[in-house]
Amino acid sequence: MASLNFEKEKDSFRKFYDSNSKHFEKAKKAYIRIISSLLKGADIGEVTKIEGRVKDKEECIKKFNRKYQSKLEADDQPYEIKDYLSDLIGIRIICLYEDQIEVVAEVLKQHFKIIDVTDKISAVESTEDSFGYKGLHMDLALNDQMISLPKYQQYADYPFEVQIRSLIQDAWSVLDHKIKYKKSIPTDLKRRINALSALFELADREFKEIRNATTELIHQATVAPISDAFDDSRETADQPSTVTSEKTVNAFNFLRVAGHFFRDFEFEDYKVDDFVQDILKLDGGFKKSELHKSLNTNLKTVREYSDYFMAKNPGNTFSPYTAIRHCLYLYDQETFSRILSKGPKDRFEGWLREFRGDYT
């Protein structure tokens, strides 16, 4: 029964919390599963973390006391503490980039009942002299369709808060919470903190711009007609640097060349980076046209060897990277003598002598 007796309501809330704590944990895990599934099925890019927590019961009481108690009692309005805690269960979603936040929020709006939305990003950016962490906070509840499902009916009375942040916003929030006495901090320290906050904001923006620029480079490298991609003679000094730099093999034009020959294979970015560096360590001026030529000339032979090798060694693999290494070795055995380690090189040379009869 609601009342205006704070001590009584504190005791009542503690009993409610203790008797339902296991249920809160189950609800938290259920919400994480639902949100993870929704975001996995949406085209939003990489989400680095989805985690949850159940708010400590004494922290719940402190928050109620800080935000609601005085007004409720001034209005002579009886209360139960549990009715004012939309964040008793909290979910945090960490995106790589700031522009993913709104996309994630739209997905959640489509699938949950919206209680409240607090945009801390706009709140901070609309002032010139404040500092603090950014993020989007949403108070949500299961919608009627979810509640109608037996497996979710038990969570019908449990709203929850979702915090959505970029990776850099999350890092700043950790530091922001460590800054003590922010309302009383001296002006010179406040200016330094504001400068630091601005650096984090700049990092978030630059991180996004680097992603966009990298995506554009990959797009340029992968949509050009195949006949254009390897014609170095068309590259002149007055072309943009992003084009002329493609003369030497790099991760972007490597993807273009390798993707042409291995259409069904997904080249992972970090492996491509490492592989290209392996090539450039052996020949710092190796051209994309030479890469294309090495594959165009030698891949048929290497695939014959791959079939032979896999028949003899069914438990092993022969990846596109391995095939490219063999092609480069055939293309220039002196320059790429170390592109294959001793064992694979000896086996390959032996096969060439025995089965091809054309290795000298």
What's this model, at a glance?
Helices cover 58% and strands 10% of the residues. It has 360 residues and is an alpha+beta fold.
What is this structure's SSE topology?
Blueprint: H1 6-40, E1 47-54, H2 57-74, E2 89-95, H3 101-111, E3 112-119, H4 120-125, E4 136-142, H5 144-147, H6 150-153, E5 160-166, H7 167-176, H8 187-223, H9 226-229, H10 241-244, H11 251-261, H12 269-282, H13 288-312, H14 320-331, H15 342-356
Parallel strand pairs: 2-5
Antiparallel strand pairs: 1-2, 3-4, 4-5
Roughly how many Å apart are the termini? 94 Å
The named CATH superfamily of the largest domain = Beta Polymerase, domain 2
Taking all residues together, what is the mean pLDDT?
Answer: 87
Number of helices: 15
Ranges where pLDDT stays below 50 over 5 or more residues in a row are 228-246
Cα Rg: 30 Å
GO biological process, one term: guanosine tetraphosphate metabolic process
Protein name: (P)ppGpp synthetase
Organism: Syntrophotalea acetylenivorans
Domain RelA/SpoT: 52-187
